[in-house]
Write a structure and sequence with these properties.
about 160 residues; alpha+beta; Immunoglobulin-like; five-stranded antiparallel sheet; 1 helix; about 15% helix; disordered N terminus
Length: about 160
Amino acid sequence: MSAMRRALFGAALAVVVVLGAGEGARAVGHEADLAHHGHVSLWEGRVGVLLVSENHGPSDVSQATVRLSFSEPLAGGQVLPPACLWGSERVVVCRTGALRAAGAVDALVLDLRTAASPDEMTVDIGTLWSDGVADDNPRNDRHRVLVLATGDPYVF
């Protein structure tokens, strides 16, 4: 390799390293620990969800989206809260609103009818989108809850 090519290669490598370091430094500044907690109940063909989303920081999150996936289909024609929309007959997606570091948002409450009257179902809750903020602790924002049709609240 000629001296000119070595110099160009070295300069290009330096640019990549500097830009990469800049990206890494920006990513460290945009970390948050999102968490979702609440409870799910199932009774007589109805499923109720109370969900509280929190951010343990260190950075604020301007918006996040939570996906709730149900193992049983839900009845059609139901109206969801304004922050939510249907993903499919088994999926509801809700936005949290802004999550300040060390803060929580008001509880989201869902009262839904199932298509049938199951004896049990599973509900998967998890962050779908967090505005590009890194979360190195996904254990507290992903849950799978087995819910029996007893009307009892199953906490997550």
